[in-house]
Every structure is written in structure tokens, then in C-alpha cells.
Write a structure and sequence with these properties.
Length: 240
């Protein structure tokens, strides 16, 4: 999916450059750093990933061989030796998998931290330019939003609500107020409550249908408002 986003990145950067060249320089340099991190992730994790796959294949091959020759192994008193041999291969496979996961996770965390830092730096630089009367407050916010849309990777399903207050369209009273939670990838969460408690309201806010009146809902650290509806819909399943 990143291939469909790449052609639009120059338009976002051009829009930032219209506001101020310093903002464009920060956006381009920050994007370059993120690209370098992504390339380093691919290059440095390729060999460990190959070793992990090979070790996993070898342990599975030994396991299958033991299963197919179980009668002979037991009759010759080789059960313990066969199990030890499989254990060594399996342990090596797990160690390679952990090493690869740690390395890839480190690069992912670095990229996420850099992305959040750059978004904050864009706001900080924009605020400085506003104080110098070289930029308007609206352009500062617009530049930050454009930059946030340009380098967003595929989210990894970490969902976070930060003091979210939701007022349904056409209503004056908040259906949900100051909601906070964090849902890590791979976790299933059930929301229960009486009719009218706000369960459907929360679902509509999580899917981006109803924007929060206050607070933020973040997907992998990026606010939902930074995702175009069509892009966000590709990462969320919703069955009302």
C-alpha cells in the first residue's frame, strides 16, 4: 500500500514549501531519515530472518523425521538422544526468531519515535516562525497535518484513546467523556454496558466516523485525523 502513497508525498512536501522553506527543509530531511531507517531495517534484518527461517525449517524437519521413525527410535533406545537433538535445533530456531524480532522491533520503535519527534519539531518550528511573523497560525497547523500525512507507515494495530470526549452529531450533551485506554496489537477487547451507555458511539469514534470533540484517538501513535478516510478504512474492519 505504501506504493500508492509515495506518488502523493511530493505534493504534500510542495504544500509545506509554500508555507515556508524552513518547514520544507525539515520535512524533507526528516523524511530522508525515516527512509534511511526503513532501508537499514530491511538490510540488517534480512540475514537474521533468513537464519531464523532456516533454523525453523531444520527443527521442523527433525521433528517430522522423529515422528516418521518413532518405532525404530524407540526400539533402539534412541528416544532421549533424538529429543535432545530436536531440542537443540528448536532452541536455536527460537533464539534466531527472538533476535530477529528484537532487531526489527528496535527499528520500528526508532522509526515511530522519530516520526513523533518530527511532528513535534514541525509544530515547534512553525510556532517559532509565527512568533517571527513569517508564518500564520493556520499555516503552522496545516504544515503539521500535511507532514503527518506524508510519512505514515502501515499501522500495527496499537489503539489508544487520550481523554476522548464524544458528542454525537446534532446533540449538545457528550455521550462519552474523558475516555482513556490502550489496546496492544493482538489483544481482543469486549465493551459491555446498558443500552445508551455509549458502546456504538465509541465504535463510531474508533472507526473515524465521529470525530472526538476533545482528546485524541491514535492508531500506532498517529491521530486518526491524520489518516484520509479511504486509507483508514483499509486498516479497520467495521460491521455495524
Amino acid at each position: 500500500m505504501a506504493g500508492f502513497d509515495i506518488p502523493w508525498t511530493p505534493f504534500f512536501l510542495f504544500g509545506i514549501a509554500i508555507f515556508h522553506p524552513w518547514l520544507a527543509m525539515l520535512a524533507v530531511s526528516g523524511g530522508a531519515v525515516l527512509i534511511v531507517v526503513a532501508i537499514a531495517n530491511q538490510v540488517l534484518t534480512r540475514l537474521p530472518q533468513a537464519k531464523s527461517n532456516l533454523a525453523g525449517f531444520q527443527s521442523e524437519a527433525i521433528s517430522e523425521q522423529i515422528r516418521s521413525e518413532a518405532e525404530m527410535i524407540r526400539s533402539l533406545g534412541m528416544t532421549g538422544a533424538a529429543f535432545d537433538r530436536w531440542s537443540v535445533a528448536r532452541r536455536q530456531s527460537l533464539e534466531e526468531q527472538l533476535r530477529t524480532t528484537d532487531l526489527g522491533g528496535g527499528f520500528s520503535s526508532l522509526a515511530k519515535s522519530l516520526r513523533l519527534f518530527l511532528q513535534s519539531a514541525m509544530l515547534g518550528l512553525g510556532a517559532y516562525l509565527v512568533l517571527q511573523n513569517e508564518l500564520t497560525g493556520g499555516a503552522m497547523i496545516a504544515g503539521s497535518i500535511l507532514f503527518g500525512r506524508a510519512p505514515l507507515p502501515r499501522p500495527k494495530a496499537r489503539l489508544e484513546a487520550q481523554n476522548v470526549t464524544i458528542i454525537p452529531p446534532g446533540e449538545q450533551q457528550a455521550a462519552l467523556r474523558a475516555v482513556n485506554f490502550v489496546i496492544e496489537p493482538g489483544v481482543a477487547v469486549g465493551v459491555i454496558g446498558q443500552s445508551g451507555a455509549g458502546k456504538s458511539t465509541l465504535a463510531r469514534a474508533i472507526t473515524g466516523v465521529w470525530p472526538p470533540a476533545a482528546g485524541k484517538i491514535r492508531l500506532d501513535g498517529a491521530a486518526l485525523v491524520n489518516y484520509a478516510p479511504d486509507v483508514l478504512g483499509q486498516h479497520i474492519g467495521y460491521l455495524p
